[in-house]
Amino acid sequence: MSVTHTDVPMTLKVTDDCPVRDVLDRVGDKWSVLIVVLLGRRTHRFGELHRAIEGISQRMLTLTLRALVRDGLVTRTAHATVPPRVDYELTEMGRTLLVPLSALDEWANAHRDDIRAARERHDRGTTA
Amino acid sequence: MSVTHTDVPMTLKVTDDCPVRDVLDRVGDKWSVLIVVLLGRRTHRFGELHRAIEGISQRMLTLTLRALVRDGLVTRTAHATVPPRVDYELTEMGRTLLVPLSALDEWANAHRDDIRAARERHDRGTTA
DNA sequence: CGGGATCCTAAGCGATACTG
DNA sequence: CAGTATCGCTTAGGATCCCG
Protein backbone atom coordinates (compact mmCIF):
# COMPACT_ATOMS: atom_id res chain seq x y z
CA MET A 1 0.00 0.00 0.00
CA SER A 2 1.17 3.49 -0.80
CA VAL A 3 -0.13 6.80 0.43
CA THR A 4 0.75 10.00 -1.37
CA HIS A 5 0.17 13.53 -0.27
CA THR A 6 -2.83 13.81 -2.52
CA ASP A 7 -4.44 10.71 -1.06
CA VAL A 8 -4.73 12.47 2.22
CA PRO A 9 -7.44 15.02 2.90
CA MET A 10 -5.84 18.37 3.45
CA THR A 11 -8.73 19.47 5.60
CA LEU A 12 -6.87 18.76 8.79
CA LYS A 13 -6.38 22.00 10.63
CA VAL A 14 -3.40 22.24 12.87
CA THR A 15 -2.28 25.46 14.39
CA ASP A 16 -5.32 27.03 16.00
CA ASP A 17 -7.82 24.77 17.78
CA CYS A 18 -7.27 21.48 16.03
CA PRO A 19 -10.27 19.14 16.15
CA VAL A 20 -8.16 15.98 16.07
CA ARG A 21 -6.40 17.13 19.17
CA ASP A 22 -9.77 17.76 20.79
CA VAL A 23 -10.70 14.11 20.37
CA LEU A 24 -7.36 12.92 21.60
CA ASP A 25 -7.62 15.18 24.61
CA ARG A 26 -10.91 13.52 25.31
CA VAL A 27 -10.22 9.93 24.42
CA GLY A 28 -6.44 9.81 24.35
CA ASP A 29 -6.15 9.09 28.04
CA LYS A 30 -5.30 5.73 29.46
CA TRP A 31 -8.75 4.16 29.71
CA SER A 32 -11.44 5.91 27.65
CA VAL A 33 -10.90 3.91 24.49
CA LEU A 34 -11.00 0.62 26.34
CA ILE A 35 -14.26 1.56 27.97
CA VAL A 36 -15.82 2.80 24.76
CA VAL A 37 -14.86 -0.37 22.97
CA LEU A 38 -16.23 -2.59 25.71
CA LEU A 39 -19.47 -0.64 25.80
CA GLY A 40 -19.54 -0.94 22.03
CA ARG A 41 -20.12 -4.63 22.50
CA ARG A 42 -22.87 -4.36 25.05
CA THR A 43 -24.10 -2.51 28.10
CA HIS A 44 -21.92 -3.09 31.14
CA ARG A 45 -22.35 -2.66 34.84
CA PHE A 46 -19.74 -0.81 36.82
CA GLY A 47 -18.30 -3.95 38.32
CA GLU A 48 -18.25 -5.72 34.97
CA LEU A 49 -16.13 -2.97 33.52
CA HIS A 50 -13.96 -3.03 36.58
CA ARG A 51 -13.24 -6.70 36.14
CA ALA A 52 -13.09 -6.65 32.35
CA ILE A 53 -10.46 -3.97 32.13
CA GLU A 54 -7.83 -5.43 34.38
CA GLY A 55 -5.47 -2.90 35.83
CA ILE A 56 -7.83 0.03 36.12
CA SER A 57 -8.40 1.47 39.56
CA GLN A 58 -11.88 2.06 40.85
CA ARG A 59 -11.12 5.72 40.98
CA MET A 60 -10.09 6.02 37.34
CA LEU A 61 -13.02 3.95 36.17
CA THR A 62 -15.35 6.33 37.94
CA LEU A 63 -13.61 9.43 36.67
CA THR A 64 -13.36 8.21 33.10
CA LEU A 65 -16.97 7.11 32.99
CA ARG A 66 -18.07 10.41 34.42
CA ALA A 67 -16.18 12.29 31.74
CA LEU A 68 -17.65 10.12 29.00
CA VAL A 69 -21.13 10.71 30.36
CA ARG A 70 -20.48 14.42 30.54
CA ASP A 71 -19.53 14.53 26.88
CA GLY A 72 -22.61 12.62 25.84
CA LEU A 73 -20.77 9.51 24.72
CA VAL A 74 -22.11 7.26 27.44
CA THR A 75 -25.32 7.09 29.45
CA ARG A 76 -25.44 6.16 33.10
CA THR A 77 -28.52 4.38 34.43
CA ALA A 78 -28.76 3.85 38.16
CA HIS A 79 -31.34 1.33 39.34
CA ALA A 80 -32.68 2.00 42.80
CA THR A 81 -32.31 -1.58 43.93
CA VAL A 82 -30.39 -3.04 46.79
CA PRO A 83 -27.63 -3.78 46.23
CA PRO A 84 -27.47 -0.88 43.76
CA ARG A 85 -26.95 -1.52 40.07
CA VAL A 86 -25.61 0.97 37.56
CA ASP A 87 -25.57 0.34 33.83
CA TYR A 88 -23.36 2.12 31.37
CA GLU A 89 -24.20 2.22 27.72
CA LEU A 90 -22.91 3.96 24.62
CA THR A 91 -25.05 6.75 23.25
CA GLU A 92 -25.70 7.04 19.56
CA MET A 93 -22.80 9.47 19.30
CA GLY A 94 -20.65 7.13 21.32
CA ARG A 95 -21.31 4.38 18.82
CA THR A 96 -20.29 6.55 15.90
CA LEU A 97 -16.94 7.02 17.62
CA LEU A 98 -16.31 3.31 17.23
CA VAL A 99 -15.90 3.81 13.50
CA PRO A 100 -12.79 6.02 13.53
CA LEU A 101 -11.48 4.03 16.45
CA SER A 102 -11.72 0.91 14.35
CA ALA A 103 -9.74 2.63 11.63
CA LEU A 104 -7.06 3.38 14.17
CA ASP A 105 -7.19 -0.17 15.43
CA GLU A 106 -6.78 -1.51 11.93
CA TRP A 107 -3.76 0.68 11.41
CA ALA A 108 -2.31 -0.45 14.69
CA ASN A 109 -2.69 -4.08 13.79
CA ALA A 110 -1.20 -3.55 10.38
CA HIS A 111 1.87 -1.70 11.61
CA ARG A 112 2.46 -3.00 15.07
CA ASP A 113 5.29 -5.24 13.90
CA ASP A 114 6.82 -2.54 11.74
CA ILE A 115 6.95 -0.20 14.68
CA ARG A 116 8.46 -2.78 16.93
CA ALA A 117 11.05 -3.56 14.28
CA ALA A 118 11.87 0.10 13.69
CA ARG A 119 12.21 0.62 17.39
CA GLU A 120 14.64 -2.26 17.86
CA ARG A 121 16.63 -1.23 14.81
CA HIS A 122 16.86 2.29 16.17
CA ASP A 123 17.80 1.19 19.67
CA ARG A 124 20.57 -1.04 18.35
CA GLY A 125 21.84 1.80 16.22
CA THR A 126 22.06 4.28 19.08
CA THR A 127 23.31 1.90 21.75
CA ALA A 128 26.03 0.57 19.43
CA MET B 1 -26.64 8.83 10.69
CA SER B 2 -27.10 5.70 12.73
CA VAL B 3 -24.58 3.15 13.83
CA THR B 4 -25.68 -0.21 15.12
CA HIS B 5 -23.61 -2.82 16.87
CA THR B 6 -23.36 -4.84 13.69
CA ASP B 7 -22.01 -1.88 11.74
CA VAL B 8 -18.94 -1.92 13.90
CA PRO B 9 -16.16 -4.41 13.37
CA MET B 10 -15.89 -6.60 16.44
CA THR B 11 -12.23 -7.19 15.77
CA LEU B 12 -11.18 -4.69 18.42
CA LYS B 13 -9.30 -6.51 21.13
CA VAL B 14 -9.41 -5.02 24.55
CA THR B 15 -8.24 -6.77 27.64
CA ASP B 16 -4.78 -8.11 26.92
CA ASP B 17 -2.43 -5.91 24.90
CA CYS B 18 -4.85 -3.80 22.92
CA PRO B 19 -3.40 -2.45 19.67
CA VAL B 20 -5.53 0.69 19.71
CA ARG B 21 -4.08 1.59 23.04
CA ASP B 22 -0.62 1.06 21.61
CA VAL B 23 -1.23 3.71 18.99
CA LEU B 24 -2.72 6.09 21.47
CA ASP B 25 0.20 5.57 23.82
CA ARG B 26 2.40 6.52 20.92
CA VAL B 27 0.44 9.31 19.30
CA GLY B 28 -1.98 10.32 22.01
CA ASP B 29 0.43 12.74 23.60
CA LYS B 30 0.17 16.46 23.30
CA TRP B 31 2.15 17.07 20.12
CA SER B 32 2.69 13.95 17.99
CA VAL B 33 -0.45 14.30 15.94
CA LEU B 34 0.23 17.91 15.17
CA ILE B 35 3.70 17.10 13.97
CA VAL B 36 2.56 14.15 11.89
CA VAL B 37 -0.11 16.23 10.24
CA LEU B 38 2.28 19.05 9.47
CA LEU B 39 4.82 16.64 8.04
CA GLY B 40 2.00 15.10 6.06
CA ARG B 41 1.85 18.31 4.09
CA ARG B 42 5.54 18.58 3.38
CA THR B 43 9.02 18.14 4.79
CA HIS B 44 9.79 20.60 7.56
CA ARG B 45 12.93 21.84 9.19
CA PHE B 46 13.19 21.84 12.95
CA GLY B 47 12.69 25.56 13.22
CA GLU B 48 9.76 25.51 10.82
CA LEU B 49 7.94 23.05 13.02
CA HIS B 50 8.87 25.08 16.03
CA ARG B 51 7.25 28.18 14.59
CA ALA B 52 4.35 26.35 12.96
CA ILE B 53 3.15 24.64 16.08
CA GLU B 54 2.84 27.61 18.36
CA GLY B 55 3.05 26.76 22.00
CA ILE B 56 5.41 23.81 21.81
CA SER B 57 8.65 24.07 23.70
CA GLN B 58 11.94 23.33 22.02
CA ARG B 59 12.38 20.49 24.44
CA MET B 60 9.07 18.79 23.62
CA LEU B 61 9.59 19.24 19.90
CA THR B 62 12.91 17.48 20.19
CA LEU B 63 11.57 14.69 22.36
CA THR B 64 8.48 14.10 20.26
CA LEU B 65 10.41 14.07 17.01
CA ARG B 66 12.93 11.68 18.47
CA ALA B 67 10.17 9.29 19.49
CA LEU B 68 8.56 9.48 16.06
CA VAL B 69 11.88 8.76 14.41
CA ARG B 70 12.47 5.86 16.74
CA ASP B 71 9.17 4.28 15.77
CA GLY B 72 9.88 4.66 12.09
CA LEU B 73 7.17 7.21 11.43
CA VAL B 74 9.52 10.07 10.65
CA THR B 75 12.98 10.34 9.13
CA ARG B 76 15.57 12.81 10.32
CA THR B 77 18.07 14.15 7.81
CA ALA B 78 20.88 16.30 9.15
CA HIS B 79 22.79 18.33 6.57
CA ALA B 80 26.38 19.04 7.53
CA THR B 81 26.17 22.70 6.62
CA VAL B 82 26.76 25.76 8.70
CA PRO B 83 24.44 26.82 10.10
CA PRO B 84 23.16 23.25 10.47
CA ARG B 85 19.95 22.20 8.81
CA VAL B 86 17.82 19.24 9.79
CA ASP B 87 14.87 18.02 7.77
CA TYR B 88 12.04 15.93 9.10
CA GLU B 89 9.86 13.93 6.79
CA LEU B 90 7.16 11.32 7.13
CA THR B 91 8.13 7.79 6.24
CA GLU B 92 5.84 5.64 4.13
CA MET B 93 4.40 4.19 7.31
CA GLY B 94 4.02 7.66 8.75
CA ARG B 95 1.95 8.66 5.77
CA THR B 96 -0.38 5.71 6.15
CA LEU B 97 -1.08 6.94 9.66
CA LEU B 98 -2.63 10.06 8.19
CA VAL B 99 -5.55 8.00 6.97
CA PRO B 100 -6.96 6.87 10.33
CA LEU B 101 -6.07 10.26 11.75
CA SER B 102 -8.24 11.85 9.10
CA ALA B 103 -11.07 9.58 10.09
CA LEU B 104 -10.70 10.77 13.64
CA ASP B 105 -10.54 14.35 12.46
CA GLU B 106 -13.71 13.93 10.48
CA TRP B 107 -15.48 12.53 13.50
CA ALA B 108 -14.22 15.38 15.61
CA ASN B 109 -15.54 17.94 13.18
CA ALA B 110 -18.88 16.21 12.92
CA HIS B 111 -19.46 15.95 16.67
CA ARG B 112 -17.60 18.83 18.16
CA ASP B 113 -20.78 20.84 18.63
CA ASP B 114 -22.68 17.87 20.01
CA ILE B 115 -20.02 17.31 22.61
CA ARG B 116 -19.96 20.93 23.60
CA ALA B 117 -23.72 20.92 23.89
CA ALA B 118 -23.78 17.71 25.92
CA ARG B 119 -21.13 19.13 28.20
CA GLU B 120 -23.00 22.35 28.86
CA ARG B 121 -26.25 20.49 29.38
CA HIS B 122 -24.54 18.21 31.86
CA ASP B 123 -22.80 21.03 33.70
CA ARG B 124 -26.02 22.92 34.08
CA GLY B 125 -27.71 19.80 35.37
CA THR B 126 -25.13 19.15 38.07
CA THR B 127 -24.55 22.72 39.15
CA ALA B 128 -28.27 23.34 39.49
C1' DC C 1 -22.42 -2.75 44.78
C1' DG C 2 -20.99 1.55 43.28
C1' DG C 3 -18.98 4.88 44.40
C1' DG C 4 -16.45 9.44 47.31
C1' DA C 5 -12.48 11.50 49.81
C1' DT C 6 -7.78 11.66 50.71
C1' DC C 7 -2.91 10.95 50.08
C1' DC C 8 1.04 10.22 47.37
C1' DT C 9 4.09 9.22 43.45
C1' DA C 10 5.57 9.37 38.66
C1' DA C 11 5.18 11.18 34.50
C1' DG C 12 4.52 15.09 31.23
C1' DC C 13 5.62 19.27 30.14
C1' DG C 14 7.29 24.29 30.21
C1' DA C 15 11.10 27.71 31.20
C1' DT C 16 15.51 28.84 31.08
C1' DA C 17 20.34 28.62 30.21
C1' DC C 18 24.08 26.66 27.66
C1' DT C 19 26.54 24.45 23.30
C1' DG C 20 28.61 22.72 18.63
C1' DC D 1 20.24 26.58 13.76
C1' DA D 2 19.27 22.69 16.22
C1' DG D 3 19.71 20.97 19.72
C1' DT D 4 21.21 19.39 25.30
C1' DA D 5 20.87 19.90 30.40
C1' DT D 6 18.67 21.18 34.54
C1' DC D 7 14.90 22.67 37.32
C1' DG D 8 10.42 22.90 38.93
C1' DC D 9 5.56 22.80 38.40
C1' DT D 10 1.28 20.47 37.35
C1' DT D 11 -1.25 16.71 36.21
C1' DA D 12 -2.65 11.75 35.74
C1' DG D 13 -3.40 8.13 38.10
C1' DG D 14 -2.70 4.24 41.81
C1' DA D 15 -3.65 2.88 46.79
C1' DT D 16 -6.32 2.98 50.59
C1' DC D 17 -10.20 3.76 53.53
C1' DC D 18 -14.99 5.03 54.13
C1' DC D 19 -20.05 5.20 53.16
C1' DG D 20 -25.19 4.51 51.60
TrEMBL record, chains A, B:
It comes from Actinomadura alba. Gene3D superfamilies: Winged helix-like DNA-binding domain superfamily/Winged helix DNA-binding domain. It comes from the Bacteria. The lineage of its organism: Bacteria, Bacillati, Actinomycetota, Actinomycetes, Streptosporangiales. Residues 18-116 form the HTH hxlR-type domain. This is Helix-turn-helix transcriptional regulator. Transmembrane segments: none annotated. The keyword Transcription applies. Keywords: DNA-binding, Transcription, Transcription regulation.
